[in-house]
Specification:
Number of domains: 2
Largest sheet: none
Structural class: mainly alpha
Shape: elongated
Strand content: under 5%
Number of strands: 0
Length: 92
């Protein structure tokens, strides 16, 4: 694995830390080769793969049912399988 890949991966992890207001120092103990078939740095993932394997957070408005929202998402992104992992009901 090239040191460039390690630097880009570490930059992504540090970016996540900043989003969460976490201040820590990372130490790379070893650099091992990773087969690209098993993943990539999330910010470098092609949009098609992100849609196919990703998670979409929706702030569902009052009115449509959870089933309707899932159906809309399937049509919008042209995917066969989609679902929800919890209630999509609005906050009271």
């Amino acid at each position: 694995m090239s040191s460039d890949v390690v630097k880009r991966g570490l930059a992504f992890i540090e970016w996540l830390d900043r989003l969460g207001n976490v201040n820590r120092r990372w130490l790379v103990k070893s650099e091992d080769a990773t087969d690209p078939r098993y993943g990539c740095i999330p910010t470098e993932r092609p949009i098609e793969e992100a849609v196919r394997k990703g998670l979409l957070v929706i702030d569902k408005p009052p009115g449509p049912t959870s089933h309707e929202v899932v159906a809309w998402i399937k049509r919008m992104f042209n995917v066969e399988r989609a679902g929800h992992g919890g209630t999509l009901e609005p906050n009271p």
